[in-house]
Amino acid sequence: MSRLQPARGTADLLPDSMAKHRLVIEAARAASACYGFQEMATPIFEFSEVFSRPLGESSDIVTKENYSFADRGGEMLTLRPENTAGVVRAMISGGLTQSLPLKYFYAGPMFRYERPQKGRMRQFHQVGIEYLGPDDALADAEIIACGARFLAALGALDDCELHLNSLGDAQSRSAYRAALITYLESFVDQLSDDSKTRLAVNPLRILDSKDTGDRQILQNAPQLQDYLNDASKAHFADLTAALDAAGVSWVFDPLLVRGLDYYCHTAFEFVTTSLGAQGTVLGGGRYDGLAEMLGGPPVAGVGWAAGVERLAMLVETAKANSPKVAIITADDGARLAAFQLAEQLRDSGIEIDLPTSGAIGKKLKKAGKAGICVAVIIGSHELANNTVQLRNLEDGSQQEQPLDLADSNGLAAAIAKSLLAP
RNA sequence: GCGGGUGUAGCUCAGUUGGUUAGAGCGCCAGUUUGUGGCACUGGAGGUCGCCGGUUCAAAACCGGUCACUCGCCCCA
């Protein structure tokens, strides 16, 4: 137990949890397809610059939270910590800026070197969409509506609140940032230690500090929305009007920010109260500056990502797929015939479990527990008479059926019929 | 990276102020039933008490370290 563990922050997905994950991913896939997003995938690792360039080489994220390593050729590679940078890189490398707009859906594993918590693993899984090209606020509205539709399909939307804010365009942001720094510098002695360093490194993040002293100081801090220029105000008004028209409810959250420079305008999160401190279940925003930062032409973009693990915790139960029919041998004399029959029934599209060990009683018991509905019982006696016993494991009824190993269609039909019966 | 909590059977957990052979329920295996599951009864397997060290005549228990899990902080692209 102590010796053979999965590496820290990783977990096996055994069939029952895998079923929950698949349910989440398929809901996201269906919701995004509904809006015309097409599934694609980028590599699980990239040259480190893809992830470090938009963030700055010395930031905490790059130096402490990335899984980076040199390969045998000396290239610095990083396991992808999120997929937006990879998708934008793929757009640039593939020359797809000629085919805008692009609407992409993805699902897959991501990696961050962090202290694990509930719903926060070192290897985790995300689903997400990216809408590349348009700078229209209706694009923002569309991806948010898509996210809401996805959460609704999981039955999670009712427990979530959509938090919405505008960061404004680059001009608005830098005006606000300057004002905020000026204000906070006059309280620098009273700020928490964490926020003192944030003031130098990433002042906007002080807005969502959890320190009560910081929150006190923030009461009278300049407000982001007062620094939005007309174009930024118009974008936000356009977005909220579209959400209202679509019946997507939202709350204005002036403290919801993104620290990185390539973000602009819309920032949003769907937050649930049922998951402790890790309450954000789906989050995203507009990142018009990212493509240029990665060395491509300026291309507007907006998207979101959602953590599969966290959403899977909100899914009540999901039953792993398992066969409904088992072929059970009564004695070794029917081993080969049973194997042959199993293959023939699979040809007919029936999922067959063929247990190989244990007495007949054991096999029936296990089949019943595994949720198998019908057992085909075959032994030397049946083989000699060209029959099988068809046993309904739910009500215990049993009937004899003819066995013809040259043509099992009749038996397949009888099984299909008993599977349909209540 | 920082702080709190928790590590005993496959799972959920008992285990007295330190005391000699570490328990229960569920699950698993076998039998009662030599070819028919669920119920019942009977029996059985399964434990380096997370790991290393220390205190002690004696440690699952006390102390130190370490690892893992968990909650919060930092971070959250």
Class computed from helices, strands and strand pairing: alpha+beta
User: In angstroms, what is the radius of gyration?
Assistant: 28 Å
Helix content bin = 25-40%
Main sheet overview: 8 strands, mixed
SS strand fraction:
15-25%
Form type: elongated
Strand order within the widest beta sheet: 1-5-6-11-10-9-7-8
Tally of strands: 16
Supply database-style keywords.
alpha+beta, BirA Bifunctional Protein, domain 2, Rossmann fold, five-stranded mixed β-sheet, 15 helices, 16 strands, 37% helix, RNA-binding
Structure commentary:
This protein has 422 residues and is α+β, with helices and mostly antiparallel strands. It folds into 2 domains: 15-169 and 229-314, 2-Layer Sandwich (BirA Bifunctional Protein, domain 2), CATH 3.30.930; 325-420, Anticodon-binding domain (Rossmann fold, 3-Layer(aba) Sandwich), CATH 3.40.50.800. It is 37% helix and 21% strand. It has an 8-stranded mixed β-sheet, sandwiched between helices. The protein has a 5-stranded mixed β-sheet with strand order 13-12-14-15-16, sandwiched between helices. A 3-stranded antiparallel β-sheet has the order 2-4-3. Helix 1 packs antiparallel against helix 5 (137-153). The longest helix is centred in the first third of the chain and has 19 residues, at 15-33. The chain is elongated. The model has no long low-confidence stretch (mean pLDDT 92). It binds one RNA strand of 77 nucleotides through residues 1-3, 5, 8, 51, 54-55, 59-62, 64-65, 81-82, 84-85, 112, 114-118, 120, 194, 205, 210, 258-260, 262-263, 276-277, 280, 283, 287, 305, 328, 330-331, 359-369, 375, 377, 379-381, 389, 391, 393, 396, 398.
